[in-house]
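pinging the channel bc i need a second pair of eyes. not urgent but kinda urgent?? the chain im working w is below, pasted from the shared doc
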Amino acid sequence: MHRFYKLISNSFEGLWGSRRSGELDWLTFVPVSALASIIFAGYLYHYVNRQDSGSDRMREIADAIRIGANAYLRRQNSALAVFAGVMAVILGLAFSNLHLSLAYLLGALCTAAASYFGMNAAVRANVRTANGAVKGLSRALPVAYFGGAVMGLSIVGIAVLGMSILFYIYSLLYGDMETALDTILGFSFGASSLALFAKAGGGIYTKTADIGADLVGKVELGIPEDDPRNPAVIADNVGDNVGDVAGMGADLTDSYIAGTIAAMLLGARIYHSPIYIVLPLMVKAIGVVSSMLGTLFVRFGIRGSPGSALNRGTYAACIIFSILLYVVISLLNLGGLGLGIFSAIIAGLVAGIIMGLTTDFFTSIDRGPVKRTAESSKTGAAINILSGFSYGLLSIIPPMIGIVVAILAAWNISDIFGLNHYYGISMAAVGMLAVLGSVIAADAYGPIADNAKGIAEQSGLGEEVIEVIDRLDAAGNTTKAISKGFAIGAAALQVLALFFAYSEEVKIPRVINLMDPNVLGGILIGAMMPPVLSALLILAVGKNAFRMVEEVRRQFREIPGLMEGRSKPDYARCVDIATAGALKELILPGILSISVPILVGFTLGKQALAGFLGGCIITGIIFALMMANSGGMWDNAKKYIEEGHFGGKGSEAHKAAVVGDTVGDPFKDTAGPSLNTMITVMALSATVFAPFFL
């Protein structure tokens, strides 16, 4: 067996003792845990699929949603396959490295597969959740949650399996850590590139349909949100899946992989020891096991809050992870460094949970900011928008402080235990997304419940059933807000870890000169990028939504009896408008995210590129937090009025709140979440092409 394999194996000899036949070692534990996660996700998918899908009308609506979602994903992946192929050729020629090209393609394929599996489960769980609600909350909740868990466990399983297999194959084949690390860096770049397009495209699609349905249906005609007469209603339901399920899944896969690989790169550059290189993979494997076990703690009683049931699973996963991590690191005999690594990982995990919970304060329907934004709607849309925007700006305070505390905690822990500061911070980033499987399960539950409500309303299931699904949907709004806060905070630490990895790759000094005009120019260009990319995405939504609004108006105007319910609208036409527009508009933001860092590196130099990354990280986090939280606030302010406050549905306050929610839609579901992926892609682009800047 190759000496590198022996070196890794010897590092774990104290844990496993003599390697008897059939006894697992850590080299096999990592991919085995990933396979177990994928198999468990398959079992949950089978459970969801076995549930009754309801009446013919319910199945008809669900089939239209499923066909539309799959059609969009098929067209998106066909277009992105061409882009991925071109990028793979460029990487292969630029680095004369076929393995890098193959790893890039594999990373893109893994992201696409994770998105597909998650969305496929969601479009089957939605109708079964609606039908389960006929028999009560305890029958509907597990279908929605396990549908989301399919996506969560698929993503972490596929990501860990891809990273571990690539690393182990190349380290065994070549006995060279550089080859193995360069290969998995290409894997991460491929995953992030596809995630960027998937999140941006899905966000443009979903908000195109949502705005088109709301502006004409709710504001102009005064019909309900999911009224079957609305031509955009199916496209809106499809958008929940391609944006909030497939797109968000791709986004979180990107952060999950990038943070792990950044820590592995730093372990190689700083410690030159295999144990510190594979440790981030081991931590993620422990998190995968903890996420699977956490699903067993979700209880689906008739009484109690659905949100509490979902959070119980996430908290259980965090506790299990902490216990298993302590046991494993203790057995690895790493001395003081081991305790320092454990403390840094837990600091990251706790910071992530706190950031998620503080996000809830600004976006929950029961909290002051949402209620005050709803009340401001009585004076019109302008004050509603100003209130939501201002609270969004204020909402950056807790998570930014949380990020600072996480960095300082990891730094000081490193000081206490003699751990390298940058490696400590990178391990805190690994810890923040360690139980991502549980976080995504709760997040993907939200759009499933939202779709279930639409199917129930269009099928005429009655007010009692709608009330049950409303309870599920309300919990989903909260879990989605917490997950977005968690994801943005995690992206911040992941990108900081990548920033340190880039610094090590190009060997720049720990302190850069801000008086250097090239460095200052790099900072300013980097700070400019997130607002520019946000503007491009929001303008894309606006242009595509204009086409959708015109089409919806045309159908109501030209189809006889549509408003009276005697005729059926042309749903397919609206789906096609959203699809074609989204694929067209996502190209420019994606290309800029990949190319601008490379141009800065070539024209201004490696230190200017470090400044560029610093600038885009800071403004990217601020813009992502502000837009995600403002959008969530406007959405729940509208829902608060729809519950009967300040005049209820159809009132002037409600119309103003709908306008505010329409402004917030591309904030929270297109530009805000896409910035997570964009700053990660920019950092990865700099790191991958670092050899050219030396």
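so Residues 40-693 form one domain. and The radius of gyration is 24 Å. — does that match what u expected or am i reading it wrong
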